[in-house]
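dude i think i finally got it to work??
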Amino acid sequence: MTAFGWLKGGDDAALAKSNYEGRESATDRAARLRMANHRIRVHRDGDAAGTEPRRRLFGRN
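look at this
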């Protein structure tokens, strides 16, 4: 791969297999972090998660 090979584009699937074999994709990383944060939230809030309205920082005028 040349220094500016990414400018001309190409076969992304082949590039992923050749250059990034064994690495976690950005999509997989985001899904893993989303699931981890969900588990943390469920353990912290339990069944009450999302049912109580959030408090406002300032009152309404």
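Residues 41 and 47 are 10 Å apart (CA to CA).
im so relieved honestly
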